Amino acid sequence: RLWAMRNAIFRLGGAQVALTAMVLATAASVLGHAWQTALFVGLALALSSTAFALQVLEEQGDLAARHGRLAFAVLLFQDLAAIPLIALVPLFASKAVDVGNAMDLTAALRGLGTIAAVALIGYFGLDSLLRLVARTKVKEAMTAAALLTVVGVTILMQKAGLSAALGAFIAGALLSESSYRHQLEADIQPFQGLLLGLFFTAVGMSLNLNLVLKEPGTVLGLALALVAVKAIILYGLGRAVGLDNRPARRLGLSLSQGGEFGFVLFAAGLGAGVLSRHTSDLLVAVVTLSMAATPLLLALDRL
């Protein structure tokens, strides 16, 4: 499927991330941030919300249209790009609050080696483990094994100095490639909506409302600027690949928000010293407002 969609995923998706990151990084640099921080902010804000955008596209009936399929391809590339970004966050910390947190080349190679080892061991050994669990014919045991895999890989990644979110993502990818993926998906399905809601609840609770009240103009202005930049770039790319005016416009609006991976990156950047607390809180508020604006903009576009 990836190979069949390679042009849309890697060309369109790659162009969107590169162009958006370049524009936003330049803006952040003009606002006074160091180039490492500016580049990190640009890359983090270039990502859109897969969960949010796909839900909105499905509700609007756009997912089956060509611009909906292109939006899916762009989101898929962004999800792939987010993984190395999470792993390499410490490389942006040239001016970390704690210099010891900055990752040198040896630590980066060790982290990448850990990722490769986990992927190889999981790919060749996870099926055998799940086969043994399946022989017990206890449904709860399969769910427990899946959760154990996620927690185990997450702890291993943390021990290697990498992000817990990266470990959870890799564990999920390994489980999705196992022979028991359909059973695992059925077992986990009841928790999916609950945990997604819990994630966004946690994001909402982390929102610094005092900052929003103290600097409403800054927060609103940056949110509008983010939506405008991403929508314009995606509109131009949509036109470049042959979309008509309205489908290209809907492509731009549907992916104009910041994404959930941005929240993960902001938290990791704050921990690594790439971002200050004020900058992290400001970016979380901006992304949250951009998400809230997406369904409203799409509804207005239908008028």
Describe this structure in words.
The protein is mainly alpha-helical. Helix content is 80%, strand content 0%. It is built from 13 helices and no strands. Helix 4 (66-87) runs parallel beside helix 12 (260-272) and helix 5 runs antiparallel to helix 6 (139-159). It is globular. The model is unreliable at 95-103 (pLDDT under 50).
Structural class: mainly alpha
How many DSSP helices?
13
Unreliable residue runs: 95-103
SSE run: HHHHHHHHHHHHH
Give the distance, in angstroms, between the N- and C-terminal Cα atoms.
Answer: 35 Å
Q: Whole-number radius of gyration? A: 20 Å
Query: Level of helix content?
Result: over 70%
Q: How would you sum up the major sheet?
A: none
Oligomeric assembly: single chain
Shape: globular
State the total count of DSSP E strands.
0
Question: Averaging pLDDT over every residue, what do you get?
Answer: 85
What's the short version?
The chain is an all-alpha fold and 303 residues long. The chain has helices spanning 6-30, 35-46, 50-60, 66-87, 105-135, 139-159, 164-176, 181-206, 209-214, 216-240, 245-254, 260-272, 277-302. It is globular, with a radius of gyration of 20 Å.
